[in-house]
Specification:
Shape: elongated
Strand order of the largest sheet: 1-2-3
Number of domains: 2
Order of helices and strands: EEEHHHH
Oligomer: single chain
Helix content: 40-55%
Length: 107
């Protein structure tokens, strides 16, 4: 449960909190103002420890990651699909359509 880095989203509406050693969770978003959630408390503790939020997203577009993650089925369903249909079918039927819908921006 380690926060690695925090920055402001391109939309300037949230902080994007990047994580280390969190399994499938790479980040979480919190609003700019304290909303009294557990994630905001976690961010505040990180800030109180002397860390700083940076504004380094102006040249990066990572919104596609959030969009993809919201559409992928739960991991258990994906594993079941792989078991019954194979990895190639999983890629072509589940992963590729979402990646095509939300492509990674070219650098």
């Amino acid at each position: 449960m380690t926060i690695r880095h925090v920055n402001i989203t391109n939309e300037r509406t949230h902080y994007c909190v990047h994580l280390e050693d969190e399994g499938d969770d790479l980040f979480f978003l919190v609003p700019l103002e304290n909303d009294s959630t557990e994630n905001w408390t976690r961010l505040q503790e990180w800030l109180d420890a002397g860390n700083e939020i940076v504004d380094d997203m102006s040249n990066q577009d990572t919104h596609y990651q959030v969009q993809r993650k919201s559409e992928y089925p739960p991991l258990e369903d994906q594993l079941d699909y792989i078991y019954h249909n194979g990895v190639d079918a999983w890629k072509s039927d589940i992963i590729d359509p979402i990646k095509n819908k939300y492509p990674k921006p070219e650098a």
